[in-house]
Design brief:
Shape: globular
Number of domains: 1
Order of helices and strands: HHHH
Structural class: mainly alpha
Distance between the termini: 11 Å
Strand content: under 5%
Number of strands: 0
Helix content: over 70%
Number of helices: 4
Largest sheet: none
């Protein structure tokens, strides 16, 4: 996956986060922090340890898979994109 593709995925996550904030503020903040960490890593590779990024995404997928399947799909796409980038 290319950098523009992961950026589009992050935009989708950001859009979903705005609706998530209204229904579940804590969950919205959690995803917002993940997006911020991912963007920081893309801007400055290594700013966030790759293992921490992967662990955060994996935990979020497990946390949201039942109640927020669309969010989970977006998170899985980001995880796949990172994997394709060698992260």
């Amino acid at each position: 996956m290319s950098n523009p593709e992961i950026r589009r995925s992050l935009e989708r996550l950001r859009a979903y986060t705005s609706t998530l904030h209204a229904r579940a503020p804590e969950a919205g903040q959690h995803v917002e922090q993940l997006v911020a960490d991912l963007e920081r890593h893309l801007a400055t590779p290594g700013a966030i340890p790759p293992d921490a990024l992967i662990a955060g995404l994996t935990a979020a997928i497990q946390r949201f898979e039942v109640e927020h399947p669309a969010l989970t799909a977006s998170l899985q796409h980001v995880l796949y994109s990172l994997s394709s980038m060698g992260i």
